[in-house]
Amino acid sequence: MQQILDFLRDIRENNNVEWMHENRSRYEKARDTFKALSQEILTRMQVIDPQLKGLEVKNCIFRFNRDTRFSLDKAPYKRHFGVYYVPGGKKTVGAGYYLHIQPYDETDEMFGQSLIDVGLYAPPSKAAKIVREEIFYGAGERMQQFLDKPAVRDTFKFYSGDRLKVLPKNLKDSPYDDLIRLKNWDMFQNLSDSQILAPDFVDYVVEKFTIGMEWNHILNEMLDGYEGESCF
Known about the structure:
alpha+beta, 5-stranded antiparallel β-sheet, 12% strand
């Protein structure tokens, strides 16, 4: 894990094709280590969560190259490694488990560190409509009961700012307005570099993912039968 953090710190300062060419072997070692880590977590989670049965790690890990076509930032490479365990693979619209490895960067308050995340991120508008209606017509109570569990409150929190300013006209005056207003139904926990390097890191990730499993199941039940492709 140390070699992953060291490589990612260096790519942050040298994000260009020439540097990557000279350090290709370092990248490959870091990539392979992350892939092995991702496989270990997946293997253990497949025992715990039946929704992940049959999932292959190659369909969960994100590419390290960035798509710069529509971005002002033309840096060719990411500054992190990421893997998203969702039934059907990361191209499927659904709730899953995300692991993000990135060395702590005090200059980047929003994205400058590692994290774990559970839930549904950036669903297409039709999928978001389904979730909001499900919350309004009955699922909101189950979701709130889950969120009220002490283990959940002590582990995860929602991102700030990702909310509708105006509720849909047909979904107003619900006791679960706060859940309906969400644009992303995912929760996260930041991780320090020391946590990444700890010998029990995989145990820790699996433990926290397991706490969030019911949340993923609730959301995936809502989207059962939905056909669409995720933003990934």
